[in-house]
Design goal:
Oligomer: single chain
Shape: elongated
Structural class: alpha/beta
Helix content: 25-40%
Distance between the termini: 138 Å
Order of helices and strands: HEHEEHEEEEEEEHEHEEEHEE
Strand order of the largest sheet: 9-8-6-11-12-13-14-15-16
Amino acid sequence: MLEKRSSARRSRGHALTKRLSDRRKRRRRYRHAAEVLLGILLLGVALWGLWQPSVRLSQVVVSGGTSTMTATAQRAMRGTYFHLIPRNSVFFYPAGSVRQALMSSDPSIAAVSLHRFGGNALRITVTDRVALARWCGADSTPAFQQCYVFDPSGFLFATTTPLTRQTTIVATSTATSSVSTQIAAAVTAPVSSGGSTQPLDSYVVYEPLATSTVGPIGVTLPNAAAFPQVFSFAQELTPFGSVVRIISIQNGEVDDTLASGTVVKYLLADATQALSALTAARQDINLADGSIDYVDLRFSGKVYVKKNTAAPHGGG
């Protein structure tokens, strides 16, 4: 009898525990459902808020650029993220896409910075590339040449007025004065678009591009890393009496054409040694009067000179 009563009490206890457990499970499900509904509601409110005009970029101001850049930036912010969030949201506007779109539209742009102001306005500041010098092709032989300016990194970003020549720009034994005239034309040819309009250095550079391209704008010159050394060498020649106007780089060899028409040849890898050799022979070399066709410094420690027999000065 006592055993039956004990069994009945255990059964009632188990039933009560099960009901309490089921009740707690239902409460958890209800609470979870309520939390999900609340989350959806809050998300909906947030999405609704993101579409309000007060939190969307309604004005784009471009400093340092052209009027077309405003439209370019606005196009980059059109559309939505996942069909939910507007891309022109003041919180989620695509700064990287705007920057890329502007720089792709104009190679003369070096940098783009973006800043929000006034709540829902965007200020874009454009920094132009600075022209270091001109590049006029792989070599100086064509009679008609389109020239381009490049920045200190060797990046070609704008065209200059095409250069037409009746004779080769590289000095020959019979064309010293003509060469000097054409060199001056190359140096003073204006930049036709984009970036700084006057190169920092007056050099005209010739060298082949690494790969064949339809148009060179947007290409980086292959020997750009060596330009500081190359330009420094050219500047070191000024005390010799004539400035460098043309720098030609071919297969690791450099030809510096002076305003006098004389050409100084050296190996790109041995610029320091070449300059030392030329300096040591300075008293015996006149680079200012066109009496020398070329000076060859390509052989270590040696200075070879070819006289210009047609020059008005026979010595040098």
